[in-house]
Design brief:
The chain has about 280 residues and is of the alpha/beta class. The chain has 11 helices and 9 strands. It has one domain: Alpha-Beta Barrel (TIM Barrel).
Amino acid sequence: MKLIECPRDAMQGIHEFIPTELKAKYLNQLLSVGFDTLDFGSFVSPKAIPQMKDTAEVLSQLDLSQTATKLLAIVANQRGAEDACQFEEISYLGYPLSISETFQLRNTNKRISESMQLIEEMQSLCQKHHKTLVTYISMGFGNPYGDDYSREIVLDFAQKLVDLDVKIISLADTIGVSNPENIQFLFHTLIPAFPEVEFGAHLHSTPQTVDEKLTAAYEVGCRRFDAAFLGFGGCPMAKDELTGNMPMESIYHFLKTKDLALNIKETEFNNGFRMAQEVFGRYA
């Protein structure tokens, strides 16, 4: 079971700039919890996501000496990938590939065809620099733009990523339209079809639908979950303030009932939760 805490996703849409020192302090607390991965920042245009303009500076203030948690950075183009690859501390590069042409252009200023080419180039970069590429299939459960969507398209995208040797694919419910039925269908189909791939769930939801979505994904074998304390965040390019990230505290308490070895330090988890309340209570 892998829990991926996503403070980058939680912070990136907040308009008031969170001081670099406070970001680093919060991330250092999260590093002590025992999460598998910390989605900590992004190497993207500061004009597009001004909150993340200090990612390199934040990274320099992180204490990685006492943690097994790995760092993931989001990139949106070749330059961002090259920048991220300069840091040995970063284990994963994440790229958002959208089924929706409209959203791909809005999110990365690239068409889907250009993004597929970029993924191939980023794979080479990752292999050269001993990093792993994580690809998100955004709008993986539907989109509001009228672009073509079907389950078969999702499966086709997954096949194309597998053909590029992508080893981690996360299905992203960018606007909160997933439901138990389509969650179960996709994970139930993809996990046995591509056993060499680690499939994850990056689900956005309203508070009322968290448990049913978690249950659906878990029951068909999903063992990688993205979340953020308090459920803050969501994609600022999606322009939807009604849905946010899955709350990490909800996922953790759900999984505790499954008698799993989560490797989470309860005291540090609670300290992280309290600090999230302070940070987001002040700036969000």
